[in-house]
Design brief:
The protein is mainly α. It has one domain. The longest helix has about 55 residues.
């Protein structure tokens, strides 16, 4: 019972060296931040998928582009999805360039595509925000935990220098304290890696849908009288 008590999780953290405790505290902070961003991105991507599906359905159901544009212009920015913003930017630029009679149709469509592409880039930057943090946590946290482990094991073996006869009871607590840092590094890294891979895949699929819509919308505008 005494060994179990001495090797409890709280006891190991409390008796670790100051540097190892700082490493554990940093990993705990990073883990909490990564979980915050994981849930934040989960809800944001889920909402973006819903808004994209709703607008695609409305776009192909309603042939009146002017009416769709009025609805998009009057909607709140926070209620608009990326696809609707791309449509709004493209149609606004198309309408403005069409009024300049000196421009031919090719120049009008080129300007329209540039407007949609600029909005597309801004929306992708918004969707990809915080993904770099998750990637960094997933790649760096195990090494930070390993650093704490190596430092803790060095202290454990240094302590054995003052012991005449080393036994498992002397070395086990120090090594266990050090290994907690590695465990915390993996605890921070694994969810971040899984979330990053999943969200990067979802965002890539949304980007493909945005690209396809841009081309289809350009074709629709080219057929306008």
């Amino acid at each position: 019972m005494e060994v179990t008590q001495d090797l409890s999780f709280v006891h190991l953290i409390g008796n670790a060296s100051v540097l190892v405790q700082l490493v554990m505290g940093l990993l705990l902070l990073v883990s909490l931040m990564s979980w915050w961003y994981i849930f934040l991105k989960m809800f944001a991507i889920r909402a973006e998928k819903k808004l994209t599906e709703d607008f695609e359905e409305a776009f192909w159901r309603n042939p009146d582009l002017q009416q769709l544009y009025r609805q998009a212009s009057s909607a709140s920015r926070k209620d608009m999805g990326a696809l609707e913003r791309i449509f709004e930017a493209g149609y606004a630029e198309y309408s403005k360039l069409k009024k300049q009679r000196a421009m031919d149709d090719g120049a009008v469509m080129e300007g329209t595509r540039r407007a949609m592409r600029a909005t597309y880039q801004r929306e992708m930057d918004r969707l990809e925000s915080h993904l770099a943090f998750l990637a960094s946590v997933g790649s760096v946290s195990p090494y930070v935990g390993l650093f704490g482990t190596v430092w803790g094991i060095m202290n454990a073996f240094r302590g054995l220098a003052n012991v005449g006869q080393a036994t498992l009871a002397h070395v086990a607590p120090g090594i266990a304290e050090a290994l907690v840092a590695t465990a915390m590094g993996l605890f921070a890294a694994i969810p971040a890696v899984v979330a990053y891979n999943r969200y990067a895949h979802d965002i890539d699929r949304l980007a493909s849908r945005f690209d396809s819509f841009t081309e289809e919308f350009s074709n629709v505008l080219q057929r306008q009288p």
